[in-house]
Prior knowledge:
Helices cover about 50% and strands about 5% of the residues. The protein has about 160 residues and is mainly α. It has one domain (about 1-155). It has a two-stranded antiparallel sheet with strand order 1-2. Helix 1 (about 25-40) runs antiparallel to helix 2 (about 45-60), helix 2 (about 45-60) runs parallel beside helix 4 and helix 3 packs across helix 5 (about 145-155). It starts with a strand and ends with a helix. Zinc ion (ZN) binds near residues 5, 25, 29 and 61.
Amino acid sequence: MIERCVGCGAEFEKIDGPIHRYMTSSAGCWERYGELLGVMAIAPELKIARQLSTDAYAAQHPGTPTPQATQSVAVHLLNLYGYLVRGRPVGVPQFAGHKGAFPRLEPPSFEQTRTVADMPITGSHEEIAVAARAWAESVWAAWSERHGLIAEWHAKYSAK
Length: 160
Ligand SMILES: [Zn+2]
């Protein structure tokens, strides 16, 4: 039986399993993401792919409107903006210290968007790295109605 993820819309075999506390997903989606992180964790050359995947996954699983989920989505979108639009080096998140500053953003449809299901977890590291960037760019594009707002937030908070 196939279950569609409530966050990203990816379809996985329905399983019983844990999910994240506030990045609401199907158990199958969360399991696949865990497998992906496992592959990337032991490959130092996939550090950038890992950060992009983390931001993409979080921005695609906005969960319920709790304060924590709301801040998480905002911070990960700010990361994507910084990395993909402003060309900041992919690395340590820049906005971790601004908890509570951001209002809830209603998520877009991820209908045409890449998901963790498109990540070639058994592929070469190069394939994984290319796919992670494509996934991040796809998720960022899905949030296009908020690009202006994210840019404003970035300008407002990055100097502090
Ligand atoms: Zn999902």
